[in-house]
Amino acid sequence: MNRSRTRPVVGALCSVGLACLIWEAFARSGLFAPVLAPSVVLIGSALGRMVLSGAMVKHALYTLYRVLFGFILAGAVGVPIGILMGRFRRVERFFLPLVSVLMPIPSLAWVPVFILWFGLGNAATIALVFYAATFPVIYNTWTGVRSVNRLWIRSAEAMGADEKALFRKVILPGSLAFVITGLRQAFARAWIAVVGGEMIAATSWGLGWVIFDSKEFLNTDVMMASLAVIGIIGFAFERLIFYPIEQRTVARWGMVRAVKG
Amino acid sequence: MRRALTSFAEAALPFIVVGILWQAFSLFGPFPQKLFPHVETIVATFIRLVGNGILLIHASSTLLRLILAFFLAALIGVGLGIIIGRYQWAEDFLLPLVSIGNPIPGLAYAPLFVLWFGLGNLPAVLLVAFAAAFPIVLNTWTGVKAVKEIWIRAAQAMGAQDRQLFWKVVLPGALPHILTGLRLGLARAWRVLVAVEMLTSVRLGLGWLIFGAREFLNTDVMLAGIAVIGLVGFLLEKLAFQKLEELTLVRWGMMEA
User: Fold this and answer.
1) Is A256 contained in some domain?
2) Is the dihedral of CA A191, A193, A199, A203 positive or negative?
3) I need a labelling partner for B83 at 20 to 30 A (CA). Which of A203, A230, B6, B59 fits?
4) Number of C-alpha atoms within 13 angstroms, CB side, residue B233?
5) Which of A92, A107, A192 is most worth mutating to test chain B (most B CB atoms within 10 A of its CB)?
6) Which are the contacts of A230, defined by CB distance < 8 A and separation ≥ 6?
7) What CA–CA distance (Å, rounded) separates A243 from A238?
8) Distance, CA of A176 to CA of B74 (rounded, Å)
9) Residue A65 domain-assigned?
10) Contact B226 A97 (CB under 8 A)
C-alpha cells in the first residue's frame, strides 16, 4: 500500500465519519422523534446485534441467492441473444423491436403480475431480477459486437481464420468491454429489482423484506442497518468484482482507459 | 411506398409472433384464463380504459409526479455536481458519500420516507427526486472535470472572468455529460416512481392502477397498465432527449447525430 492508494480511503473514511456526525446532530436535534431518526449508536448496535445473531447474514444470503440466480440466468440468456443479434441481420430485425419496447418498462411494474403467475416467494423475485437484468445485457452485447472494428475482422479473415476462430479470437474479445458494461448495468438494475421485489412479493427472509417488515414495528434502527448492508454489498460488488474483472481484461488489453475514482 | 410497407411489416412481425405465442399459451397453457388473458381481452380492456379516460387520469397524475420529481432532482443534482466538480473541498467531502449512496436502490428508502413524510404524494415525489439525483450528480461532476484544460486556459488568457468562464466555457463543455446524467436520472426516476406508487398508496397513478388491479384479479387491466408504462417510457426517451440533443450538442458540433 503506497500513499496514493491509501489517501482516497482515508478521505472516504473522514467524510463518512463527518456525515455520521451530522446525522447524529440531526437525530439529537429533536426535529424528528427519536424513533423516526435513531442515533448512529442505535443503528450500529442494531447492526451488531443482527450480525451476531446471524439474522442479518441469513437475510443477506437469501437476497444474494435471488439476485445471483436471476443475474446469472440473465447473462446466460442475454449474451447469446446479443451476440446473435450483432452477427445476423435476421435475428437483429426480429429481436430489436421487442427489446426496445420491453426495456423501458420498469421491472417492478411486473411484480403484481408475477405474483399472480408464480406465487409469493423466490420464483417471483427471481423472475423479476431476470427481467430487469436481461435487457441491458442484450443491448450492450449487441452494441459491442457491432462495434468490433471491421478492419480486425477483415484481417483475421484474410489470414484464414475460420468462423469459430474469428468468433473466439476477434469478436468476443473485441466486444468484451461492452459486455462487461452491460453486466455492470444489469447488476445495478437487478439489485434494485431484488429489493423492490422482496418488499412487495413478501417472503420471510431478505434485505428488502426486513426493511419493509420493520416499518410495521417502527424499528427505524433495523431499517437503517439493513440499508447500510444493502449499500455495502452493492458497493462491494462494483469494487471487488466488476472493477478487477475490467482491470484484468479490457483495461490490460488497452481497450479502455482505466477509470480511477 | 412499397419500401415503407415492407419495413412496417418487418417491424410488426416480432410483435405478431409474440402475440400468437401469447395467445397459444393462454389457450393451451397451464394458467387459467383469468391469470393469463387472451390477446383480444387485453386489447379490448385497453381500448375500454382509454375510451372512458381512466388510463389518461392515471397516466397524467403519474407524469405530473415524474416531472415534479425530475425537476427537483435536476436542480439539486446539477448544482451539486458543479460544486463538486469545481471545488476540491466539496469533492473530498461529498464524492465518497455520493458514490456510496448511488448503488443503494432508491426503493429501499421507501419505508423510511413513508415514516418520515406520511403516505401520498410528498414521500413519492421526494423519494423519486432523491433516487434520480445520484446519476445526475455523478455525471455532472464527470462533465465538469472533463472540460478541456486548454479551453479554460485560452478563455483565461483572453481575460474571461470567473463568471464568464463558467457560463461560456465550463457549462457548455460539460453539457454532453450533464445531458447523459439527466437521461439516466429520468430513466431511474421513471423506474422508481412506478414502484413507489405501489408502496405509498397514492390516489391515482399507473403503479397504483396495476397494484390495485391485482386485488381484483384484473390481469387484463394490469397488462394494459404495463403497456402504457412501457409506451410512456419509450416516448420519454425517444422524444424528449433526442430532440434536446439535436438542438444543443449536435448543432454545436460536439456530438454526431
Assistant:
1) no
2) negative
3) A230
4) 26
5) A192
6) A191, A195, A207, B104, B105, B108
7) 6
8) 33
9) yes
10) no
Residue A1 — pLDDT band, cuts 50, 70, 90? very low
Residues A5 and A23 in one domain: yes
- Are residue A33 and residue A79 in the same domain, yes or no? no
Q: For residue range B193-249, what is the model confidence (pLDDT) as tens digits?
A: 888 888 887 778 888 888 888 888 888 888 888 888 888 887 887 777 777 777 776
Identity of residue B217:
L
Placement of cell 439516466 in the chain = B184
Distance CA B66, CA B60 (A): 10
A46 within a domain of the structure (yes/no):
yes
Please report whether residue A149 resides in a domain: yes
Say which CATH superfamily domain B52-250 falls into: MetI-like (1.10.3720.10)
Per-residue pLDDT tens over the stretch A129-156: 999 999 999 989 998 888 887 888 888 8
Interface test with A, best of B107, B201, B231, B238 (most A CBs within 10 A): B107
Give the C-alpha separation, A210 to B165, whole Å: 50
Same domain, A92 and A119: yes
Residue A189: closest CA among A178, A197, A199: A197
Q: Which residues from A are below 8 Å from B62, CB to CB?
A: none
Q: Are A230 and B102 in contact (CB under 8 A)?
A: no
Query: A242 and A118, same structural domain?
Result: yes
Q: Are residues A102 and A158 in the same domain?
A: yes
Integer Cα distance of B41 and B55 in angstroms: 16
d(CA B59, CA B221): 14
Q: What is the DSSP letter of A37?
A: S
Q: Is A204 helix (H, G, I), strand (E, B) or coil?
A: coil
Domain holding A66, by residue range, is 42-251
A75 & A202 share domain: yes
In chain B, domain spans? 52-250
State how many domains chain A has: 2
Integer Cα distance of B114 and A171 in angstroms: 49
- Do A121 and A171 lie in one domain? The reply is yes
